[in-house]
Amino acid sequence: MTAPFFDECLSVLKRTPAVLDALLRDLPEAWTAATEGPGTWSPYIVIGHLIHAERVDWMPRLAIILEYGQSRPFESFDREAQFRESHGKSLSSLLDEFGALRRGNLARLRALNLQPEQFELRGMHPALGPVTVRQLLATWTTHDLAHILQVSRVMAKRFKQEVGPWAEYLSVLK
Amino acid sequence: MTAPFFDECLSVLKRTPAVLDALLRDLPEAWTAATEGPGTWSPYIVIGHLIHAERVDWMPRLAIILEYGQSRPFESFDREAQFRESHGKSLSSLLDEFGALRRGNLARLRALNLQPEQFELRGMHPALGPVTVRQLLATWTTHDLAHILQVSRVMAKRFKQEVGPWAEYLSVLK
Q1: What predicted TM-score, i.e. pTM, was given to this entire model?
Q2: Which contiguous run of DSSP H or E holds residue B2?
Q3: Which of A126, A136, B4, B157 has the largest CB neighbor count within 10 A?
Q4: Facing residue for B153 by CB, picked from A21, A149, A162
């Protein structure tokens, strides 16, 4: 089961930059800066978050598991980092940055040539406790999809009033 | 407000085929045939639904408003048509078909050269009652985003068990 699982993760992970590019690049700022209200994230903010995760979350955590196992807990992830790190950058440059980081990370992941038994190795999440390499890769993949979902939801909600009576048929607006 | 509104609709409508292409084409069938349980739709089924809507929903309904106003209610939309119409077709061919239909529909929409007052014209929805051209265009746009959301949600849920303890952080899995 490991080979299909790993290929299924890669098949999603490698395409996420292109999905977000198709969805957001050169879109009017009314869409890309929209939020779901105070304290919620715009599509622009989401891309900065994905960049930060490429830098400090997935591959660094995998490296910690492979080198230290459960003896060294992961660093905590800063869910607000993108508010500093995206500052002054255009959405286009963030999309470029995300795509380049993802390509590099997947090249390094493939080069690790993980063996079936390595997917069951455990690391230590600082809040969640023991987690496996397999769970880390599944979470990386699911996290991509969750943020594609979030971006499309934020955008859809902009038109909550505009759709008039059709709101009744659009569960995303409820 | 009409010019930005119309451009904002078009800016999303024209990119949806590319978004779904980036998300789904050549993806393992384990992803594209996944559902959220009995009676729910896979990504493959969603593309067939979008094709049917291109054929019989958005532009035909706009034409009815422009020609008949509220005097002729729209045809009811068949939400199950894709189960017949997609039969035997590959996902790649459905993505091609959706892209071609959307391009054609947007070319016809632009060619109508709708004037500001035409956005307020009313038609008659068979269940929802009076609706405007503006609401129809907003709904077309939001419907695209709602189905991108649905596809990413269906895919994310495949890994509900695989992510292990991280499920706690992934609200899409709840």
Answers
A1: 0.97
A2: helix B2-13
A3: A136
A4: A149
- Quick check: A112 contacting B, CB < 8 Å? no
Distance CA B148, CA A16 (A): 13
For B:5-34, CB contacts with A below 8 A are 5, 7-8, 11-12, 15, 18-19, 21-23, 27-28, 30-31
The per-residue pLDDT for B3 is: 74
Residues of chain B falling short of pLDDT 70: 1-2
CA A94 vs CA A43, A52, A141, A151: distances in Å: 11, 11, 20, 15
State the CB neighbour count (10 A cutoff) for residue B91: 21
The whole-number pLDDT of residue B2 equals 67
- CA B95 to chain A, closest CA, distance in angstroms equals 14
Written as six digits, the tokens of A62 are 């995998």
pLDDT digit string, tens, across residues A23-47: 999 999 999 999 999 999 999 999 9
